[in-house]
């Protein structure tokens, strides 16, 4: 009589995915491995990002200009990498710094007062994975500029991997700039 043979369960098969640490990723960046592409390191895996389109670029430029008008050029960065932990480095559209950073490096969580993502085509990623990663890392405030709904989602007070304070500000309404008594508008 024939008997059934058992095949190893998929969990017993070693992973064939290449996983990287933040240190390894940063070495690859320094060596120019990603000069012709935009990538992020998420939980040790490389994720390729699409280049921004015109509406994204327009909103990013206006948001950056308005933040620089309030804070000065030394405290606002555009298209910069943020090291969140030993296996995640995310690129953000705009970062507001606690104080100027002079070194040529990616930013650390300790450098950042606010991260802004412009979500023209990336709303699910920005409101989902990126929000959770920024909250878990302790980024004090996170804005998602939602062009599809004409609002800015404002997340603040990171607590246990989520934000305790969540609000929505319509385009054109005053938006409080963290660490100041000033506001800007996004549209």
Automatic annotation (TrEMBL):
Keywords: Endonuclease, Hydrolase, Nuclease
Any one GO molecular-function label of the UniProt entry: endonuclease activity
Domain of life: Bacteria
Hydrolase is among the record's keywords: yes
CDD domains registered for this protein in UniProt: DUF820-like
Matching InterPro entries: Nuclease_put_TT1808 (IPR012296), Restrct_endonuc-II-like (IPR011335), Uma2 (IPR008538)
Pfam families to which the protein is assigned, alphabetical: Uma2
Nuclease in keyword set: yes
Limits of the Putative restriction endonuclease domain: 23-177
N-terminal signal peptide: none
Family matches, as PANTHER family: SLL1072 PROTEIN, SLR1083 PROTEIN
Name the record gives this protein: Uma2 family endonuclease
């Amino acid at each position: 009589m024939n008997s059934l043979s058992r095949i190893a369960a998929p969990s017993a098969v070693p992973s064939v995915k290449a996983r990287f640490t933040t240190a390894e990723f940063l070495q690859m960046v320094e060596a120019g491995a990603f000069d012709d592409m935009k990538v992020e390191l998420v939980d040790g895996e490389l994720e390729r990002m699409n280049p921004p389109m015109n509406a994204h670029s327009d909103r990013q430029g206006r948001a950056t200009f308005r933040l620089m008008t309030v804070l000065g050029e030394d405290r606002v960065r555009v298209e910069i990498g943020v090291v969140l932990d030993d296996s995640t480095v995310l690129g953000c559209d705009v970062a507001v710094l606690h104080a100027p950073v002079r070194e040529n490096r990616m930013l650390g969580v300790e450098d950042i007062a606010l991260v802004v993502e412009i979500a023209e085509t990336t709303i699910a990623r920005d409101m989902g994975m990126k929000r959770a990663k920024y909250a878990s890392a302790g980024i004090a405030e996170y804005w998602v500029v939602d062009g599809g709904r004409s609002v800015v989602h404002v997340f603040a007070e990171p607590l246990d991997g989520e934000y305790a304070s969540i609000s929505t500000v319509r385009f054109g309404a005053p938006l409080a700039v963290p660490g100041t008594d000033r506001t800007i508008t996004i549209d």
